[in-house]
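Standup notes
- HV: blocked on the assembly model, inputs below
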Amino acid sequence: MAIMPITDSLFLLAESREHPMHVGGLQLYELPEGAGPDYVSELHRELVGAVDVRPLFRRRPMNPVSSLGQVAWMNDDDLDLEYHVRLSALPRPGRVRELLELTSRLHGSLLDRHRPLWEFTLIEGLEGNRFATYAKVHHSLLDGVSALRLLQKSLSPDPDERDMRPIWSPKVRTDASNRRVEADGAPPFQVLRAAATAVREIAGLGPTAVKVINDAFREQSAMLAFKAPKSIFNVPITGARRFAAQGWPLERIKTVRKAVSGATLNDVMLAMCSGALRRYLIELDALPEKPLVAAIPMSLRTDTARAATEGTVGGNAVGIILCNLATDVDDPAVRLAEIRASMLKGKEVYQGLSQLQVTALSAIPMAPLAIATIPGALRITPATFNLLISNVPGPHSPLYWNGARMTGVYPLSIPYEGQALNITVTTYAGNLQFGLTGCRRSVPHLQRLLTHLEDSLSELEKAVAG
Amino acid sequence: MAIMPITDSLFLLAESREHPMHVGGLQLYELPEGAGPDYVSELHRELVGAVDVRPLFRRRPMNPVSSLGQVAWMNDDDLDLEYHVRLSALPRPGRVRELLELTSRLHGSLLDRHRPLWEFTLIEGLEGNRFATYAKVHHSLLDGVSALRLLQKSLSPDPDERDMRPIWSPKVRTDASNRRVEADGAPPFQVLRAAATAVREIAGLGPTAVKVINDAFREQSAMLAFKAPKSIFNVPITGARRFAAQGWPLERIKTVRKAVSGATLNDVMLAMCSGALRRYLIELDALPEKPLVAAIPMSLRTDTARAATEGTVGGNAVGIILCNLATDVDDPAVRLAEIRASMLKGKEVYQGLSQLQVTALSAIPMAPLAIATIPGALRITPATFNLLISNVPGPHSPLYWNGARMTGVYPLSIPYEGQALNITVTTYAGNLQFGLTGCRRSVPHLQRLLTHLEDSLSELEKAVAG
């Protein structure tokens, strides 16, 4: 038994039928050469037959029923691997559409608190000689960034490697080739985890302390000339989810980037989102007059040596930047420029601050999110943004699972009370992969956003070419 | 808006992650002649395309989040049929094993209270040129018996009939041929509903009133020479479910019946259960020394004219009979005889009682079940039985859905706190169909009970032949 830190138990205490607190990941794989029709079910049989499960994937809440007081972890001595590792199939014709439908349903149900808080589903019947996996893990156990890193570690850059252990087995690969991929690709990027920690730390403070920080932030943020308008995304949510996912070649994003001096890939990604959200809201006759505001978790690394001597931001400090998405602007190039300017301004707020100050400032816009889910708690600030958009770097080079090439990896996140839509993107093998997770009731026709994202990117490309 | 009767809202108030309060039904169909590979997905598209939905399937709880106070129904003006009517598929090889695995998972998740409390899943990929449907409905909306009757009404005895509406559409079939089937087959048999109502009425009484009835029952039941022993089934339960189902020809049951003078088909069914439970518990080294006690809801119809004049049991009065399953006895014929005797004794308790008395008496053994699920409530009696076994008559003749012959229909019920296993059987077209629903953690290897049921029946057959 181990007492769970309050920072983790909050995710259990705040959870309800309407607010599942798990993150997910959808991975697509090509069937390896020579794979027979029973490849996936044989893989499933192998996986449930394994006996070794790492302690992290064995622990479960000690008092699953109680919703009050300190929560402790205990070891599940009676782990039922067949419960956690599932085999599912897509109905015909097995398109990505059917895959997203199934994933939406899987992501919309609560994890069983009487067991270790994770599920892993193998999905067969995907057209184009592919199969998929959907992983689901409670936020109190692992956040999305850590889960993605663990996934990477469990895969190999070598298409000929076999006998690889699954992610929940004790020995995740640590050989040289794997370390190289990690060095190439994903630096230890803990943006979301740190942001979440900050939220939880603030939520753990008394109201007076929060007010002091809040006032400080109001002062600092006076330079932000905009406020989040009301939108259809900022409503109470229900438990059912809708998920949409698609990847776009990074080359296309890079071409657009050149249109605005100093623009980053992240700025272009935000401009894609902005254009798509604009089209989506116009179609629903629900576009606010004022521009939407997105909360963007950002790594704020500065020169580490300087940071060490001056005590300012260094290492992997994470800030939440409130970005004007300029959804009121029709011209895509102007929209990108406004987003670029807003992101720069947002980063300036954090210049010269200590790590603690960065954490505290970042937590302010997030606090209502965390606090709204605590029964009886007061909202200390009005909603300061319309949706959360996160960019979680993934591996650069193609990875394999026992010879099966992973062709895509898409993150599924947590819509919160008053935040019905979440966009999380990741990069993988030359693609920018979007995962859109929404409350099924509040975000109708979520999948249309994929078309709008494509149209938005085309529009930006035309603006650059013209 | 309509205030929900306390008898219905209790099922909503008592529900938790560990105690979902929905019932289910699994139906198997043969694909009609000439059905192409897209038959099921085309059927799904048709079903979600329909617009008419009966009021019963439109209403949802008004305050889905609150767990206190009176609950009201409201009409869902924004019904999302694509949410309720789902298309799923079995992984290869698509055996009944894979079907039961999927059904177990579907039955183990909570219904979304922000929507009308039902789901209907079409399942393709079942071997042997078949498909399946799984229906799930909250007990506050419809009980298992009513749901089965509604299903029957939505099907046809005519294999050539087409353009039939789904169960949730306003016009369930009421033509002559259908009425005939109903008259042949299932009389309005409301055993379970009435039993549930009784439980709910008793649960609504004050403790003093309950004590009076309780004492009365203790006196009446003094003739019951046994008490329920502790067993592995009488433990706190978790939310995940395991479901197993299989049918046996009624002819085999009928042959065995002749072995014991006066035995009913129901007695033989109970003897099958008893033998199977005995084998199952011996295998787990968990057979109690004393015999298991089952609670059996029974119709107690007597002569209606006499009942009317004497004010005693008439019509469809329902009693809960506590039956000695004789699991301590090795000889199958002796076991059947003991069960027969116990059922007769149980019915005697109810002789000459008024309908109200029957209801009150029946509710006593059920009360701990209902009360155990109410937070903070006291258990007024210890568990008086080990498991609930229900027999719900179904249609005698084969039924069709737009030309697809229904080959099987299996009920899924609700395990309660302290009642980890439920057995519900139904009859259909010459078969006795068993549905076994258990808590996944407390009832390990539930599917082995199917083998044990077959062995138990064979054993009875041999005893008869010998």
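- HV (later): unblocked. Chain A is about 35% helix and 20% strand. The interface with chain B takes residues 16-18, 37-38, 40-41, 44, 64-65, 78, 80, 83, 86-93, 98, 101-102, 105, 108-110, 112-115, 124-125, 238-240, 440-441 of chain A (CB under 8 Å).
- Next: hand off to the docking folks.
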